Amino acid sequence: MSTKWAWFMLGSFAGSLAAVVLSGMLALLCSRSIIKWIVGRFTKRLMSNPYESNIWEVVTAMTRISPITVVENSIRAASGAVIERPFGSPRKFLHFEGLVFSPAQLSVLPTQEDVEIDMTTVIGPKAKKPLVLDIPILAAGMGYGVGLNEKVKVAIAKGTANVGTSTNTGEGGFLPEERQNAKYLIIQYNSGHWSKSPEILKQADAIEIRFGQGALAGTASVLQAADLEGRASEIMQVQGEDITVIPSRHKDISSPAELKQVVERLRQLTGGVPIGVKICASAVMEQDLEIAIQAGVDFISLDGGQAGTKGGAPILEDDFGLPTIYALSRAVRYLRKRGAKDSISLLTGGAYSQPGECLKAIALGATGVYMGTSLLWAMTHDQVKKAMPWEPPTQLAWYTGSLKERFNEEEAAVYLENFLNSCTDEMKLAISALGKRALREVNSDDMVALDAWTSHVTKVRLAYEPWDKPGTNPHG
Fold first, then answer.
1. DSSP-assigned letters across all residues of 215-243
2. How far from chain centre, in Å, is Cα 124?
3. Which of 309, 354, 416, 471 is in Cβ range 3.0-4.6 Å of 159 for a Cys bridge?
4. Is there a contact between 124 and 298 (Cβ–Cβ < 8 Å)?
5. How confident is the model at residue 50 (pLDDT cuts 50, 70, 90)?
6. Mind telling me which residue stretches traverse the membrane in this protein (predicted)?
């Protein structure tokens, strides 16, 4: 009986399997026929219909207007208001690709592999309390409440602390947990009325007086009450206000003389930590630099036109400010001309995403490099799967983000630490390949330019020009 049952079951299974296979083959044949028919109909219409009824007009239109512009114009049409684009301009400006380093081999020997490369970075060398960092990459100003949520700010503080560099409060409120977890904290003295009490400012390792930034120029920012609900409104002391405005101007700074007074007041209040200014690069940048020099600042943070932000009007991101490499090169030349290069540290920001770009900026004369957007992407790493494909990953990071509770602070801190260590180790390897032992030894003579325009902007010699100074070290 059991044998007959087994044969019956085997026959039933074989019959079912054959039916499934046959059904699949019929479906495939049918689907191929259907697909062929659909493609044929579509191709016929595509190749014969006049433009007014042909979908191909979308393709031709987008060769004149980019998909970015099409989408942004649709958002403008839907909102009727100024739109805000995150992460800065998509425009392709001249950047650092036109520069390459010259490796040491025979005339200059590479550094031996057992030599430790010194990456020490000093901000405000003439200040009473210089800010001494272990690496030259700093976290850019990204504000609590006005941009990032508490978990992200604390993760940045922890990650930067573990590698011995600084984080920056940005324009948002002073978050006590950020100070507790950060090894070095730059407090941004912004044009708002919050986070300016002596008790807060005395906790700074450096203070950055903000006048502008690459993605926003020097414009005001307006936040609705819904944007700051909860703890951020309490910290910023804007509870119950329908709108919160970060003004375009400081109430206590309307002239170069008043800037000098504020610099001196902050210096005395903090006991001598570095006091600096943050500006975006303009066509009259040297005039702004001169005012900063006259005010006696210890450092200048200079934002290039490619810098990002939580959200900026496309016209400000695309059509204002000088590209980062232009701004950096001009600023270095001016500080040298004024004899201030060794006393005033120059921090550069705007579209830095790779260690090679950072080292090239330092070779051109920067003291340190601010990174913002790249740090956010590093921290979210595989956490983006919590948002994608239905929501943008920023919903994990923004203060108003719908997924901010799913952001893992501890994982993010580790990812950030790994990212910064990886970038630093690559830079150390490059310094060894130049035959040098310290970051401060790297200079523009270690590079050549691949094109005439990059050479003209940076004053770095062209690659096809031979080194014509016998007996000298092309690596400085």
1. TTBT--EEEEGGGGTTHHHHHTT-TT-SE
2. 23
3. 416
4. yes
5. confident
6. 6-29
- Could you tell me where the DSSP H helices lie in 344-434? 355-364, 373-380, 394-397, 409-433
* pLDDT of 17 above 70: no
Q: How far is CA 59 from the centre of its chain?
A: 32
Pair type for strands 221-224 and 243-246: antiparallel
Assess whether 37 and 161 both reside in one domain. Answer: no
354 with 293, same domain?
yes
Q: Residue 365 region, left (φ>0) first, then alpha (ψ -120 to 50), else beta?
A: left
Examine residue 178 and state whether it is found in any structural domain, yes or no: yes
Judge whether residue 1 has pLDDT over 50. Answer: no
End-of-domain residue from the set 19, 42, 64: 64
- Reference 269, options 258, 281, 261, 257; nearest CA is 261
pLDDT tens-digit readout, 366-383: 999 999 999 999 999 999
Check whether residue 433 and residue 303 sit in a common domain.
yes
Q: Could you tell me the residue range of the domain that residue 313 belongs to?
A: 99-458
Total-model pTM? 0.85
Which CATH number covers residue 198?
A: 3.20.20.70
Within a domain: 80: no
Note the pLDDT tens digit of each residue in 300-313: 999 998 888 888 88
